[in-house]
Specification:
Blueprint: H1 4-14, H2 33-43, E1 48-51, E2 59-61, H3 68-83, E3 87-90, E4 96-100, E5 111-115, H4 129-145, E6 153-157, H5 171-176, H6 182-186, E7 189-190, E8 193-197, H7 198-205, E9 225-231, H8 236-239, E10 244-250, E11 252-261, E12 265-266, H9 278-295, E13 299-301, E14 305-306, E15 315-316, E16 319-328, H10 331-349, E17 357-366, E18 369-370, H11 373-387, E19 392-397, H12 402-406, E20 412-417, H13 433-458
Parallel strand pairs: 5-6, 5-9, 9-20, 10-19
Antiparallel strand pairs: 1-2, 3-4, 4-6, 7-8, 10-18, 10-20, 11-16, 11-17, 12-15, 13-16, 14-16
Helix pairs in contact: 2-4, 2-13, 4-13, 9-10, 11-13
Bound molecules: zinc ion.
Family: Belongs to the peptidase M20A family.
Protein name: Peptidase M20 dimerisation domain-containing protein
Organism: Penicillium nordicum
Length: about 450
């Protein structure tokens, strides 16, 4: 919850990025900042929740995948793109593909701008939503200016990116990419109501399409490229005083579960030398993982720690389970951190008293992702022209996004814009009107740039 003063402090902070009024648009097109801002906030009425301030827009969002509000905004989106003359296709995961024809009348897959309209239960107004509203604003701007791209361009609203209601994040882009089986995705159950599945909600709202959720050119909906504008969800742009992040990839991560075995013993009568204390060992292991990651400029985090539910104050715990999440832009560093951690854990396990034993499982291995050089170059060109090299920065995404999956099947890259204090997945998540507009203009320029590059390449 932000006090009024804090909000005001940010607005002056945000003014550092008020480049939106002064930038030169190399395409000759200029997005409508007011229209973008109003559309974003008007449509956020569907799912608005968690009021935190005086202004009507001072709320977060609770627009969970395929709830009634998500269905409302989806129907609105369908109507808006059709008003622009786009064709609309919906696949078997409810992914929505809006397509605006290019002047070449090419049957080649469209250049897509994608993101998601669903939110976390205590989410904000920008994560995902900005990407879709920006994409729509790009189409509106092209449309009203009579501007034709060479190839078809369009928007994709990916279903269930958040994985909050149906617990699998980047769910439908994962199915599209062939990484998640559709039956598994369809069978995901509402975390509060096991009688409701993702598929039953698709059916209830009329979003179970007929096209295969796939990049297959015959049965599915292939894409020629995928660009995603997103709030950074971290503090790096703000800390470096940059307006646009040119995202060249996503870091790799591994999730491990460690189980440390000891022996329960009376805390008053068992001297340290006679103990096998798994909680003490776990705490040393967690601290060691932090130091090792730090040394490698990587991240290591423990989000869950479990002791048996019958543990007591005056008993040494018998067993402890904890998670370890290791991240870095290079897989080799992720591996090195893991190896060093395991070695350190071996040492720690023998240290106190009679020592403990441990075993571990690898639950998730998500290799680092490198986005497409040409897409990244298009975004960099857009950023250079709009704000100059000194105000943009190459970066690696710390979080997963639909673009991570699309990049497996089509040239893809992302644009980041700063958000207040780097906060997201929180009602007070905020991105200034200027930054939303600048990011949207960058999205437009990147798409136009890439479209021209693709036309040259093909001819
Ligand atoms: Zn998102």
């Amino acid at each position: 919850m932000y006090a009024k003063g804090a909000t005001r402090a940010f607005h002056s902070n945000a003014r550092r990025f008020s480049t939106a009024t002064s930038f030169q648009a190399p395409s000759g097109l200029k997005i409508n900042s007011e229209r973008l801002w109003n559309t974003l906030h008007e449509t956020s009425e569907w799912g608005a929740a968690h009021k935190y301030g005086e202004n009507p827009t001072d709320t977060g969002m609770a627009r969970l995948t395929l709830n009634d509000d998500d269905a409302r905004v989806r129907k609105w989106f369908a109507a808006e793109v059709q008003k622009l003359g786009c064709s609309l296709s919906i696949d078997q995961m409810g992914n929505m593909f809006a397509r605006q024809p290019g002047r070449l009348n090419s049957t080649a897959p469209m250049i897509a701008m994608g993101s998601h309209l669903d939110t976390q239960p205590r989410g904000g107004r920008y994560d995902g939503i900005l990407g879709i509203m920006a994409a729509l604003e790009v189409l509106r701007t092209m449309n009203e200016s009579g501007f034709w791209t060479n190839f078809d361009v369009g928007v994709v609203n990916w279903t269930n990116e958040e994985g909050a209601r149906f617990p699998k994040s980047m769910c439908a882009s994962g199915v599209w990419a062939g990484a998640i089986p559709i039956r598994k995705a369809w069978d995901l159950r509402d975390i509060h109501n096991p009688n409701v599945t993702l598929r039953s909600e698709l059916e209830r709202h009329g979003f179970l399409g007929e096209i295969a959720c796939s990049s297959d050119p015959i049965t599915g909906y292939p894409l020629g490229a995928h660009f995603e504008l997103h709030i950074e969800q971290g503090p790096i742009l703000l800390e470096n005083n940059r307006a646009i992040g040119v995202v060249r990839g996503a870091q790799g991560y591994r999730w491990l579960t460690m189980t440390v075995h000891g022996k329960d013993a009376h805390t008053g009568t068992t001297p340290f030398t006679a103990r096998q204390d798994p909680l003490l060992a776990s705490s040393r292991m967690i601290a060691a993982s932090h130091d090792i990651a730090k040394k490698h400029n990587a991240l290591a985090s423990t989000g869950i720690i479990k002791v048996p539910s019958n543990a007591s104050t005056n008993t040494v715990a018998s067993q402890v389970t904890f998670t370890l999440d290791i991240r870095h832009p290079h897989d080799s560093v992720v591996h090195a951190v893991q190896e060093e951690c395991l070695k350190a854990f071996d040492t720690i396990a023998s240290q106190d008293g009679k020592g403990v034993s441990f075993d571990w499982t690898l639950d998730t291995d998500s290799p680092a992702v490198k986005f497409d050089d040409d897409c990244v170059a298009s975004i960099q060109a857009a950023a250079d022209q709009l704000v100059g090299r000194a105000k943009s920065m190459l970066m690696t995404s710390g979080a997963g996004h639909d673009t991570v999956y699309t990049s497996q099947h089509c040239p893809s890259a992302m644009i980041f814009v700063p958000c207040l204090d780097g906060v997201s997945h929180h009602p007070t998540e905020f991105c200034s009107q200027q930054d939303c507009a600048l990011g949207t203009q960058a999205l437009l320029e990147a798409v136009v740039h890439y479209d021209q590059f693709r036309a040259k390449k093909d001819h």
